[in-house]
Design a protein that fits this description.
The radius of gyration is 28 Å and the shape is elongated. It contains 21 helices and 2 strands. It is an all-alpha fold. A two-stranded antiparallel sheet has the order 1-2.
Length: about 425
């Protein structure tokens, strides 16, 4: 019997061509785009479901097969465009991921990406047109991916709130929403979001995190750009946030513009702190104290009427004065803001109260309270660490662990989180 003729490598036993990714460049790019939209490592089955949900076809005019998907993935992997995570799937490195997302989120398909993403994540078990069920979300990257697609899907405020309530779960939190909007942050895309929804999102993030949170600094920079966002269109709570932000960088004209026509206790407190920049310590302290007392009566609150960075300027105006009476007033304020008669000397207002008590001779110094402990992930933690150096300098205490490198790290982190006067004071205290 003559030997069997070998089967050509490009054909299977049924005469159908084996997948060759290089021959279908469009499919390769569609697979790459699907991984970008996925936002995290995904297996080939997820990619298959997603592309079918998006009605993607091959050169054969048919839906791609699992073998064709696998061939495209291997082609991308060999080209170094994607990576693989053992036991999870394939993913796109962050820089090319964000670059491609900026294009995909501006495309014609953006309104249905979120629904197909959920359908694929659920294993394509139902009809795509059915009302989606909450998908299984395994990690932070998947929360971000779903939040990102939903934010740019063209919903109005009511529609987004409904989807967030029914489907997003933790992916709809202010933290995840801010991260989704800024990874990547593309101003032109952000401006396409429904106006009411955009303001709702910014106000929600502001209430949750204030001005210092590093994650949402790109959004604050957008808000602070008069060309992109005229002040007349900014809601009052966000105008107050802009005033605080401008106060921290010493832009007094900008503070006046942001607060023009607004009436609230925090408005008068910020205005009082403007005098600190002119070195009018006594005048600033007097104006702040008066505004604080009026604010307490107006809103029936004893503490927390102003952001910590604003209140700190009042305390510094008192500490800059030579009279012990001013320091005593500052200590009483710090104790009140701490909410305790004997707060811990290691954190927050308790640290300030302790430093002042040491200056007044009422307490022995706790040296460890003023040491450097590294830079935290949130802007507030950075500020707390820097306070230790300011107050140590005021006391004439020199903690050994505040090295030049520690100071440089803190200054950079403070500037990055919009805390400019705090950064300058840190440098001066070193």
């Amino acid at each position: 019997m003559p030997p069997l003729k070998p089967t050509p490598p490009s054909l299977d036993l049924f005469g159908e061509p084996e997948p060759t990714a290089a021959g279908d460049a469009a499919l390769v790019e569609s697979v790459f785009d699907s991984l970008c939209i996925a936002g995290s490592a995904r297996g080939k089955t997820w990619v298959l479901h997603f592309l079918r949900g998006m009605e993607t076809r091959t050169l054969r005019g048919a839906y791609p097969t699992l073998a064709e998907i696998d061939a495209a993935l291997q082609h991308l992997l060999a080209a170094g465009r994607i990576t693989t995570e053992q036991g999870i799937g394939f993913g796109v490195p962050r820089q090319p991921l964000h670059a491609r997302l900026a294009v995909l989120l501006a495309g014609a398909d953006v309104r249905r990406l979120w629904r197909v993403w959920i359908w694929a994540a659920g294993g394509a078990q139902t009809r795509l047109e059915n009302e989606p069920w909450p998908p299984p979300l395994r990690n932070l990257d998947e929360w971000l991916a779903l939040a990102r697609l939903t934010l740019y899907a063209g919903f109005d405020a009511a529609g987004f709130s409904r989807v967030a309530r029914q489907l997003l779960g933790p992916a709809g939190s202010p933290d995840i929403v801010a991260r989704a909007l800024t990874s990547p942050f593309v101003p032109a895309l952000f401006e396409r979001i429904d106006t009411d929804l955009r303001w709702h999102l910014l106000e929600t993030i502001d209430r949750a995190h204030g001005t210092h949170w590093p994650v949402w600094q790109p959004l604050l920079q957008w808000l602070d750009d008069p060309v992109r966002q005229p002040l007349a269109q900014v809601p009052p709570p966000l105008r107050v946030t802009l005033a605080e932000r401008r106060l921290y960088r010493g832009d007094m004209a900008g503070v006046d513009a942001a607060l023009a026509g607004l009436q609230a206790p925090v408005v008068t407190l910020i205005q009082a702190c403007q005098q600190v920049w002119a070195g009018a310590w006594a005048g600033a302290a007097s104006a702040f104290a008066e505004a604080w007392k009026a604010g307490q009566k107006a809103v029936a609150m004893r503490r927390g009427l102003a952001p910590a960075g604003v209140a700190q300027l009042y305390v510094l105006a008192l500490l800059a004065q030579p009279q012990a009476a001013a320091w005593t007033t500052a200590r009483k304020f710090c104790l009140s803001e701490s909410g305790s008669r004997k707060p811990s000397p290691y954190t927050g207002w308790g640290l300030w109260a302790h430093a002042i008590a040491v200056k007044l001779g009422d307490e022995a110094i706790e040296p460890d309270a003023f040491g450097f402990e590294g830079v935290g992930h949130g802007g507030y933690e950075v500020s707390v660490h820097a306070e230790r150096l300011w107050l140590a300098a005021w006391l004439g205490h020199h903690p050994a662990d505040w090295t030049d490198a520690a100071v440089d790290t803190s200054v950079r982190a403070l500037h990055a989180s919009g805390q400019h006067w705090q950064a300058d004071l840190t440098r001066q205290a070193a």
